[in-house]
Amino acid sequence: MASINLHGNSYEVDEDGFLQEPDKWTEDVAKAMAEMEGITDLNETHWKVMNYLRDYFKQNGIAPMVRKLTKDTGVNLKEMYELFPQGPANSACKWAGLPKPTGCV
Amino acid sequence: MARTDIGPPDYRLMLPETITSNYGKWKYHEILKPGVMKHVSETGDELYTVRAGSPRLVSIDFIRDICDIADKYCDGHLRFTSRFNIELMTPKKENVDGIIGDLKKLGLPIGGIGDCISNIVHTQGWIHCHSAATDASGLVKSIMDELYEYFTEFKLHAKLRIAVACCINMCGAVHCSDLAVVGIHTTPPKVNHEKLASTCEIPSVIASCPTGAIRRHSDKNINSVEVREERCMYCGNCYTVCPSMPLADPDGDGVAIYVGGKVSNSRKPPMFSRLAVPFIPNNPPRWPEVTSILKKIVEVYARDSKKYERLGEWIQRIGWERFFALTNIPFTEQHIDDFTYATETFRATTQFKW
Known about the structure:
By secondary structure, chain A is mainly alpha-helical. Chain A is built from five helices and two strands, in the order E-E-H-H-H-H-H. Chain A has a two-stranded antiparallel sheet. Chain A is globular and about 35 Å long. Chain B is an alpha+beta fold. In chain B, the strands form three sheets. A five-stranded antiparallel beta sheet of chain B has the order 1-2-3-5-4, covered by helices on one side. Chain B has a four-stranded mixed beta sheet with strand order 6-7-10-11, covered by helices on one side. A two-stranded antiparallel ribbon of chain B has the order 8-9. At the A-B interface, loops of A face helix 6 and helix 7 of B.
């Protein structure tokens, strides 16, 4: 298991950079992960999407379907890719500290 | 930013001249000999095709080698078939022997056209996949070595399709092939309770189980799942959605053999393949038990079938009890379906052969 250093703190991550210790997630973790993908300042919509993902995961134990995510946040898929370079699963879920999407991805 | 969403290149830009000028105007074709076809157009043009087997998993050097042959005889054109065979096409009959000679120099077998065993549709196996219960490339090489003569000669009464899938996700065509080899597990998953909650979505894990064997951990303090082993049939679906439930086991994993599927609508409608051998343990690198039983089935089928009769049609004609008797495969309780629509597969008639 690899670990990354973000602002002086060490976090356990898997080979794709997904956080393995969800309890350690903070807003700084999200900021640092976004920076690694070239997004230096997270705006309001970024946070709206990530907070929605975290709330949904906390309530339901799963990440929302893309349709649910776009409907509830009002951010359509095209905008989602503009905000999160690798898309809702690989960027948004990763920055929000959710587990890595599985299955035949 | 780089241009995106441009799709694949237009196939029409890569067609040989003879195909472009005769597109949609073909009159008939004939198979001249194993691996060689001739298409004749309404304009009188002829196109000769030489088909050679390939191992599917190839190096770039291999691709360059066949490109060299295409440059030499086919104006730089070649194609791959839907079973990963290579086809080199030329309008000149005198080029055919040269193509065959050069392909043979590379060690590629010429064949796969007509009533024969063409290439094996297969998957990743231990080369690349995390959920494999058996290998694909190794198994395919062992099987094709054993059945080589059926690729290069016409020794059957109809086509015989073989497919290999390394787990029951069944990527490829195992569920609809005359002979199919599928990797299976025989041990339940081992749950990693410490890691599960941080790496998996528990509701998805529970919903992934086809038999409802997974439920939340009975201890409320442990955020994890439990597997009721008496309900588990080791499909590995839960491992696909949750990396903390591995079930691969070197001694427990192996293959099952299915028979009698087809996709074409000729004569009989398409059929699913059905279980013939429930379990054979993995025995790399040559899987001798698997190859010998496949060869046995092919030989009995080749001897006993009628002209044009696919393996599934042959079994429908002679009946399953005759199939098991002729091939000497023991019929076990694993052969009896016990999933959702099992009753449809039971015998609801007094007709049977002793």
